[in-house]
User: Which sequence fits this backbone?
């Protein structure tokens, strides 16, 4: 019962945030939507399938840079077009990368994904002419469903139409992921996580299904990446850096990767906690390192593990 | 020709430090089966501490040529951090790899801020002692003697590690523990003590590596998280857990980077990652993979 009520209450609360008049908190919600989508994808790979990627930030960068490139270089204004192209580009990159990566599991999978992430990072960082190098690429304000909202200033645009657009996209992503996890594909992926050999014996094409999970996660990552760069107005190479991938896994663990809503909770707590800690001290990394250590040691099922006794994803 | 030689020497100098960090990574992976992301942070910590120690020693009137022993001693002194950190990691030895990796990632985050807190965010440099030992002319190029000292030290430590692991009783126990932890324990090996020692040794290799290389440049906050990716490339190329692999891998990465910077700067790290990916795909166990440390 609470399983349906809680998400509905959370969505209602999220929809009400811009109406409270605290613009600052509304702008903090924007990266939350982006990270939620990306983490829903990453959780399919890690929580559901059992593959730990330490290079998933690669696909957030793919999304971010696709949006930036389309907007700045090609003059595309429509966010739907940016999203569509970003998803296709992410899938095109994820097919060869995933095909290579899923041949390995455990620590080798983690290392290979990290290597691909850093490969992309050094490409973004060094090929100045194409990517803007360390300065990154500016992201122009996109139009939403054909509406430019030219009459709104930047904040009004971000916490108004863009906010609800992001929230809606986040909901769509959650529904799609919910369907994936409940589908035969999701069931096969869980079987692979529990015991890949047994799954293979009962006819699950283990490597192919891992590959599907990888590509789906990549596409979600790119969608999240697009949403992340619009509020900041910049796609920077650090999007692809390995510590960013580490932070993604951190959020996942914080929320609880065994639970469907773990990624969303993790992203939310991470972003708001980071905001609070940063306002108190510039040494937020130390605090976050200590939090991560405590979660790893004492709370391996994350915050959702505290709330829900039964992990159901 | 001399230019090429100079290039390769620069690469080998970097490789010496890289080898030390990678050797520490390999040791810990061999025995504890943990891929320690924090080994780059140990390197950075060694560099900062080394600078502070040498600057303090010079200010106290220690003659400049004695900076090398001060540097090494400061790296060794950081070994005191080994036992408490190992104790922290011990809580998750029997957990999934994901948790182990994340706990070392937590250490990376914390150590980065410890460095920022103690030494600030600006680049930190050693008083000019780099050229104390003079320079050698090689055709048109000049190479500081200190670079040769570091390369020699790297080789000596590599040889020492080889002897320690293959000839000493401690090395035998370490290799046994790497091969089969449970069996070693059943035969009476105190795994707790071995783990502490191995982790401390791995940490000291990293801090000494950082201390040795830093007179040639400046320490910056990001040096740890940047180096870990290189050290990681080294162990993948060489093979996880293999000392010989760390040695060859460090040479490959160090020299390749130096050559790439000279020939086609855009490809500096790109070249390294391409090799890493190629090795993982065609020889996933690395060039020298063995189960032992």
Assistant:
């Amino acid at each position: 019962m609470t399983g349906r009520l809680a998400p509905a209450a959370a969505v209602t609360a999220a929809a009400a945030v811009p109406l409270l008049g605290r613009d600052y908190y509304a702008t903090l919600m924007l990266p939350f939507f982006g990270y939620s989508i990306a983490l829903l994808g990453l959780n399919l790979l890690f929580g559901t399938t059992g593959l730990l990627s330490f290079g998933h930030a690669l696909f957030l960068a793919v999304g971010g840079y696709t949006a930036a490139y389309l907007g700045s270089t090609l003059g595309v204004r429509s966010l739907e077009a940016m999203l569509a192209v970003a998803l296709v580009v992410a899938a095109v990159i994820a097919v060869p990368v995933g095909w290579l990566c899923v041949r390995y599991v455990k620590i080798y999978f983690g290392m290979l994904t990290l290597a691909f992430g850093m490969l992309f990072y050094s490409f973004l960082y060094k090929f100045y002419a194409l990517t803007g190098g360390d300065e990154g690429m500016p992201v122009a304000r996109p139009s939403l469903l054909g509406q430019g909202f030219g009459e709104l200033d930047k904040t009004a645009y971000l916490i108004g139409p863009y906010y609800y657009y992001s929230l809606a996209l986040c909901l769509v992503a959650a529904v799609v992921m919910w369907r994936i996890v409940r589908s035969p594909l999701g069931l096969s992926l869980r079987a692979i996580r529990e015991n890949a050999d047994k799954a293979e014996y009962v006819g699950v094409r283990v490597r192919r299904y891992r590959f599907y999970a990888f590509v789906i996660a990549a596409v979600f990552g790119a969608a999240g990446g697009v949403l992340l760069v619009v509020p900041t107005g910049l796609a920077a190479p650090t999007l692809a850096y390995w510590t960013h991938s580490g932070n993604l896994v951190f959020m996942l663990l914080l929320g609880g990767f065994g639970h469907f809503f773990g990624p969303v909770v993790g992203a939310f707590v991470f972003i708001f906690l980071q905001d609070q800690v940063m306002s108190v001290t510039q040494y937020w990394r130390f605090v976050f390192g200590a939090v991560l250590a405590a979660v790893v040691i004492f709370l391996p099922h994350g915050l959702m593990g505290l709330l829900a006794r039964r992990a159901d994803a | 020709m001399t230019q090429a030689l100079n290039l390769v020497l620069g690469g080998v100098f970097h490789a010496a430090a890289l080898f030390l960090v990678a050797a520490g990574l390999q040791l810990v992976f061999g025995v504890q089966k943990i891929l320690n992301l924090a080994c780059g942070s140990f390197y950075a910590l060694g560099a900062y501490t080394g600078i502070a120690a040498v600057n303090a020693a010079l200010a106290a009137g220690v003659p400049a040529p004695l900076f090398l022993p001060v540097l090494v001693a400061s790296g060794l002194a950081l070994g005191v951090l080994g036992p408490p950190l190992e104790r922290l990691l011990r809580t998750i030895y029997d957990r999934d790899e994901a948790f182990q990796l994340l706990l070392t990632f937590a250490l990376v985050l914390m150590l980065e801020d410890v460095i920022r807190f103690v030494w600030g965010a600006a680049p930190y440099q050693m008083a000019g002692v780099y050229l104390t030992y003079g320079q050698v002319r090689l055709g048109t190029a000049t190479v500081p003697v200190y670079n040769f000292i570091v390369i020699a030290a790297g080789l000596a430590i590599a040889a020492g590690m080889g002897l320690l692991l293959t000839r000493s009783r401690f090395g035998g126990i370490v290799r046994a523990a790497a091969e089969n932890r449970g069996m070693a324990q059943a035969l009476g090996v105190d795994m707790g003590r071995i783990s502490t020692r191995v982790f401390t040794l791995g940490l000291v290799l990293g801090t000494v590596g950082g201390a040795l290389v830093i007179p040639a440049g400046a320490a910056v906050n990001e040096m740890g998280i940047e180096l870990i990716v290189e050290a990681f490339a080294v162990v993948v190329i060489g093979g996880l857990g293999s000392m010989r692999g760390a040695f060859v891998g460090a040479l490959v990465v160090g020299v390749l980077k130096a050559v790439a910077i000279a020939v086609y700067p855009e490809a500096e790290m790109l070249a390294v990652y391409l090799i890493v990916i190629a090795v993982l795909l065609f020889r996933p166990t690395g060039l020298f993979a063995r189960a032992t440390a």
